[in-house]
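pasting input
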Amino acid sequence: MSNTFKIRKGLDINLLGEAEKTISEIPSKLCAIKPPDFHGVFPKVLVKEGDEVKAGSPLFYDKYRENIMFTSPVSGKVREVRRGAKRVLLEVSVEAAPEQEYVDFGSADPNGLDKAAVTEKLLKSGVWPFIRQRPYSIIANPEDDPKSIMISAFDSAPLAPDYDLIIQGQGEAFQAGIDALRKLCSGKLYLNVSANAGVSEVFLNAKGVEINTFSGPHPTGNVGTQINRISPLNKGEIIWYLRPQDVLSIGRLFREGKFDAGRIIALTGSELKRPQYFRTTLGTSIAEMITANVKEGEVRYISGNVLTGTKIEKTGFVGFYDSQLTVIPEGDYYEFIGWALPGLKKFSFYYTFLSWMMPGKKYRLDTNFHGGERAFVLTGKFEQVFPFNIYPMQLIKAIMIEDIDRMENLGIYEVDEEDFALCEFVSTSKINIQKIVRDGLSLMIREMS
Amino acid sequence: MKALRNFLDKIKPRFEKGGKFAKLQSTFEAFETFLYVPNRVTLTGSHIRDANDLKRTMALVVLAMIPALLFGMWNVGYQHFLSTAAETGDIWQNFWFGFIRVFPIIVVSYVVGLGTEFVFAQIRGHEVNEGFLVSGMLIPLVMPPDVPLWMVAVATVFAVIFGKEVFGGTGMNILNPALTARAFLFFAYPKNMSGDQVWIAGQGDAISGATPLGDALASTTTPGSPLTLPDTMDMFYGFMPGSVGETSTLAILLGAVILVFTGMASWRIMLSVFAGGLLMGYIFNWVGANAYMDISPWDHMVMGGFAFGAVFMATDPVTATQSTKGKYIYGFLIGFFAILVRVFNPAYPEGMMLAILLMNVFAPLIDHYVIQANVKKRKKRWAAAQVTA
C-alpha cells in the first residue's frame, strides 16, 4: 500500500551553492563524536588522550542509560577529550591511523535473529544512537516497542543533500538495515520518498517497508511532518526514526560485522568555490574539505543545513546526525536604512521587498538578523509555513510560560525544534523559536520522567 | 555614509551602561537602528533570517495609508471650499488647504506619541518599539479635520500609556491604540467629535456640515426629517465630510490591496467585516422599520469609517484574534455590530469604533474557543488511540 501526501504549507528557500553531483574521496584523518549532538545524554568518558582505539571501540556512554555506547568511527589514537565550561564534555576526537582496524562484532543475517540479539549488536557497536525517537528527538530507548519506525528518504531543507545519489549502489546494505530494524518494532516500518521524479531504485525496491510519497515545499522532508500525516503521535506513543545513511551503517554492521562509519557528506553554500559531495567518515573534521575551497571574507561554517544546523569552527567536526556542511557569509555588518531599501537581493517570505518580482532567483543569504528582537506582532504567518494541525504561536507561548498542561494539549509531543525552523525564519519579531521549543522539550523530559 | 557610521560608533560607548548618557540608551538605540540595521548575527537556530523586520512591516502599513491620507488632505480642502461657496478651489488649492490643516495633526501625533514611547522604553530599559509608527498615522486619519491640536496631544498620550504601555508595549496591548485615542476624545470631548460642526475645516454656511451618517441618524431621531444620502459612488470616491482619512473607500481599498499583497494584514478579517456588515444591512432591509433601516447595505460599506475600520483598524494583528478561524468570527462580528450600533443607537453615529473596541476585548475569548476545539480534537484522538492500543 502506498499513499501520496501533498503538503501545501511551507517554504523553499532558494540558496546559491548547491552541491555538484560528483563524489570525491577524502579519507578522514581526524574524526570526533560530540556529546552535545545528543539531547539528554550525560556522557561518561571511557578513554583518555593517547589511547589506541579501533573503529567500534567505545569512547563514552550515557550515564543514565549505560547500555548506550558511543564508539569511535575510525581506528587510531584519541587526540583530545575536550571539555568546556563546568567540565561539560564537548568532543572526543580520534586521529585516524593509515590502516583501519575494526572491532569484530560478528556478521549475521538479521532475519535469523530476535529483537534482543539485534538490539544488543546495535548497542555494543555504537550504532544504536542513530535510532532516535519522537517525542523529544532523543536517542531511542532499547526497551521500548515503538508504534512504528520512520525513515525519510529525502531532505527538503535548503541545499539539502540528495539521498538518491548517496544511496546509489548500496541496495544490499540498505535492505540488511531494514531487515534489522523490522526486528525492533512490531508496528510498521515506513519509508517516505519524495514525489519528485528519479527516486533511487534502492528505496523503491526496499522490502518489508511501506513506501509513502510526499510532495510539497520544505518541511516536507522532515520526519515530523511525515509522522503528522501518516500517524500523528498521541500522548504516550513513541515513533523511532532514522536517516538513510544511518540505515546503511546498521546494514553494514550485520553484513560485515563492523561499525562502518563511512559517510557521504554534501558540501554546500554560496561561499564555496566548488560545492560537491565527499565520501568520508562520520564526524569528520571539516578542515580538509574546505581547504582552498572557500571564498574570501568572513564565513560561517554550519554542520547541517542553514535552518537547523549547528555553528562550528573551521577546525570543527560534522555532527553525528548531519550529512551536510554549509558555508554562508557572516552578517556582521551595519546596513544603512536597510529596512527602507527596495531590497532586490533580499529574500523574504513576505512580499515586502521588490525581490518578489524575481521568483526562482537564488540568493546568497548571510547570518544577519535583519532587525531587532520584538514581542510577537504579526499573526497567521507561522501557520503558513507549519504544516501541522497545531497552533504554533500558542504552543510557543505555552512553552515560554512553562505551562505543561497547555503544552501537552497544544501538541508538544508531535513536534521538535526542526519543525519550527521555518517559523523562526519568517518571524518578523526575530524570536529564537527553536531554542524555546528545545527548552520546552527538555522541560517535558524532566517532568515526565 | 561611512563617516556617519564612524560617528555613531564613536559616540555609542557614551550611551552604553556606565557611559555619560546611559540614561538615553534606548533613544540612541532607536535612532541608530533607524539609520542602520544592526550587525547582530544569529548564533543558534536558523542561521539565516527573513529580511523582513518590524520596521519594514510598520513602514509598509504606513505606506498603505498614504492613498487615504492624500485623498483626505484634498477632501479637507474640497469640503472647505464647498461650504464657503464664495471661493472655489482647484485641485492644488484644495490639497494645500487640507495639507496645512492635517499636517500639524500628524506632527503632533508623532512627536507626542513617540516622545511618550521613548520615555517608557527608557524607563523599562528596552528598545523602542516600532508599533507607534502605525498608530501615529492612524490617529490623524481618524480625527475630524477641525480637531484642536491639544486634544490630539492629550488623546495620543492617553492612548500610548493606557492603550499600550501599561500592558507592556507593542504586541501586548488589548485595545487598538489609535482607536483608544479616538474613543477617549469621543467620550471626553463629544462636542468636538460629533455633530455637524466639526467635519469641515473652516466651515462656511453654504452647506450643512453633517456627515451622511449624521444625516441618516437624524432621520430616525427627528420625526419627519427626510433621509437623503449622497450618491453611493460619490461616497465610494469620498466626496463627503468626515474624519480625515475615512471618507474615500477607493483610497482605502488601494491601501487594502497593498496590505493584503505584502501579507501585512489579514484578508480574512477584512472580508468578514464586510460580510458581517452586509448581512446586518440586509437584515435591517428585511425589518424595514424606518428609513435608515431601508438604505442599501452597500451604502453602509461606504459611509463613515466602516471601510477604514475594516482595512486598517480591525486588522491590527496584536488586538485581533490570532487563530485563522477566529479571524473570520472576529471580523464578522465587527461588521455585524458596527451596523447594528449605527442604526440603533442614536448616541453613537459611528458604530465602527465601538464595534472594533468591543471585539478587541472579546478577541482572546474567541481564540480561546477556537483553540479549545483543536485541543479537544487532539484529546479525542489520544483517547481513541488508548482504546485500540
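fyi Residues 433-448 of chain A form the longest helix (16 residues).
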